[in-house]
């Protein structure tokens, strides 16, 4: 979806403040929200693409609040969407009926290591790769209303395949509960001037990871 | 486990948010507390597990892991080559519990090319080697601008590169994760890995800085 989250190239957010203030979390509740998110991933309540999509569909004014605030907003919605609590329980602040058994079981101290372990997204290839290193490719001019990982700023531009990463879980279907549908994944780089115009910095080159369905031969 | 038990527990754990009464809590804190209570009462998580997760990311997984990887690459040419070929495999022994996840890629700065990492769509970041991302990495200003005017953004970090240096921006739009292998500072011949690791800043592994010089004057 062409949401507020797709920020590459936007104006208006001012300079970057490079100073890291304070500890890892600015308030304890931020750490608590992070822990809740990690738990819901670890117990298999929803996958990472569903989690990202849950943030993207927030109304823009909520997306723009703060990082952990939008995680909280997402969480309150997703826990209901995926059937792990009901809206009246969120409102009441407590459980009113038994929970739904999570696919990977309860999160305890004993199985805590799985929380920090990164997911594996690489899958066996089901077809030969359509593109090779050095190929010129066109990022499709596509505007799906649902989740995608092709940023707007590269759509319609020609880049070069720099590397292949095997077949990986396809976020566009995984986020919608339509399966992993593995696709070849490429690093595709673009000249900055092709993306940002003739008066932009000629020394810039930008890459994205692009799944095969995002690309056409150029 | 009751909600009351968990509330007591929350007051006990080692954060600066002890409040005597629920009425002292902000609306946001109350909403977070409600979700914690539901997770515990429904049997999705033990309270101790929730605290252990925070502690892990506050104290155990952080840029000290990446710094050790960089220092090793600076002192061991074979390791450097392995890291650039397959970072997930090469860096695994340095990771928490001997793992840095799949799909880790190390990109090396050279005199002709400077690398910088971003996630314009969300906040993808190599947690396994750098821990949680800094606030600026998640900021709208960084995400929107570093793909378009990286030289200006790096300038805001105090980093000025030669005009002819290529700036290579890596937008992490899938599950591939990038760490930058910064250049080894001059004047560090004969230094040990431990000494070198102390020069490796978090920002130098994202690309918004360079490693500190022996005099401590890094960007």
What does this entry look like structurally?
The complex is a heterodimer of chains A (218) and B (219). Chain A is of the alpha+beta class. Chain A folds into 2 domains: 28-116, Cyclin A, domain 1 (Orthogonal Bundle), CATH 1.10.472.20; 122-217, SH3 type barrels. Chain A contains 8 helices and 6 strands; from the N terminus they run H-H-H-H-H-H-E-E-E-H-E-H-E-E. Chain A is globular, with a radius of gyration of 20 Å. The relative contact order of chain A is 0.14. The model of chain A has no long low-confidence stretch (mean pLDDT 95). In chain B, helix 4 packs across helix 5. Chain B has 219 residues and is mostly helical. Chain B folds into 2 domains: 3-60, no CATH class; 63-206, Nitrile Hydratase, Chain A, CATH 3.90.330. The radius of gyration of chain B is 21 Å and the shape is globular.
